[in-house]
């Protein structure tokens, strides 16, 4: 049995990862700022509770993100993990972060570098965007606009959790091969499927954006290629009723 601390344990692939690791007999600590069943309280933004959460932990799986201060949060986690004697840190990153000039992706690259230089044995996995990503983009654009001219390779959070569980219970491996979903879809096709499922308005304007960030996405730098690691298709995700 291994003692494993999971950050970001209550959302995305974090919840199914915790379930998989506990089902396999591991002692899993689900880090959260709010108390709850099966959780351990800690705050990456302040460092409060991290020492207690990490005491005796052998592995850390770092999934937490706030999209604005991820680098300093991770640096606090790394410092506490070093002090606690953690022997393996697993980090989930995103495919293409080193090739797409987006602020959030730049932070991911900086985090990868900080982990590599931390002295803690590590594994870094880059995955494509989750199935919920197109809907989130639609929401960010007010529900009436969508990004056209792109291809997306969405992957299910359960598939990502399966791979993370394998890595967390294995030996540190550095940067491992990227993973993506089982299909690459055009955004106009994804929009049509969202509309058919009642998850998008019937009238949505497809737009393209200027600049190097959109150009990098259009060039496909965020794709892992086929065949993908994931098994859940976008239609299967829609049919499941899941929103994340």
From TrEMBL:
Q: Which domain of life is it from?
A: Bacteria
Domain NAD(P)-binding, residue spans = 8-142
Which Gene3D superfamilies is this protein grouped with? NAD(P)-binding Rossmann-like Domain
What Pfam families does UniProt report for this protein, alphabetically? NAD_binding_10 (PF13460)
Name recorded for this polypeptide: Nucleotide-diphosphate-sugar epimerase
Taxonomic source organism: Pseudolysinimonas yzui
């Amino acid at each position: 049995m291994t003692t494993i601390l999971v950050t970001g344990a209550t959302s995305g692939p974090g919840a199914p990862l915790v379930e998989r690791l506990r089902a396999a007999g591991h002692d899993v600590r689900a880090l959260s700022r709010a108390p709850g069943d099966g959780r351990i309280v800690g705050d990456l933004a302040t460092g409060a509770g991290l020492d207690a959460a990490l005491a005796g932990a052998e592995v850390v799986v770092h999934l937490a993100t706030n999209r604005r201060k991820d680098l300093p949060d991770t640096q606090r986690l790394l410092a506490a993990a070093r002090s606690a004697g953690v022997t393996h840190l697993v980090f989930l990153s995103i495919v293409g972060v080193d090739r797409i000039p987006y602020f959030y992706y730049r932070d991911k690259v900086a985090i990868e570098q900080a982990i590599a230089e931390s002295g803690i044995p590590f594994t870094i996995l880059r995955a494509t965007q989750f199935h919920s990503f197109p809907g989130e983009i639609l929401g960010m654009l007010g529900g009436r606009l969508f990004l056209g001219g792109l291809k997306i390779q969405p992957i299910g959070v359960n598939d990502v959790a399966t791979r993370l569980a394998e890595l967390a219970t294995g030996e540190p491996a550095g940067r491992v091969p990227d993973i993506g979903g089982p299909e690459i879809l055009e955004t106009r096709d994804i929009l049509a499927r969202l509309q058919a499922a009642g998850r998008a308005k019937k009238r949505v304007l497809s737009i393209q954006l200027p600049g190097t960030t959109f150009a990098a996405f259009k060039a496909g730098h965020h794709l892992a290629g086929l065949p993908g690691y994931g098994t859940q298709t976008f239609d299967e995700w829609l049919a499941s009723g899941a929103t994340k």
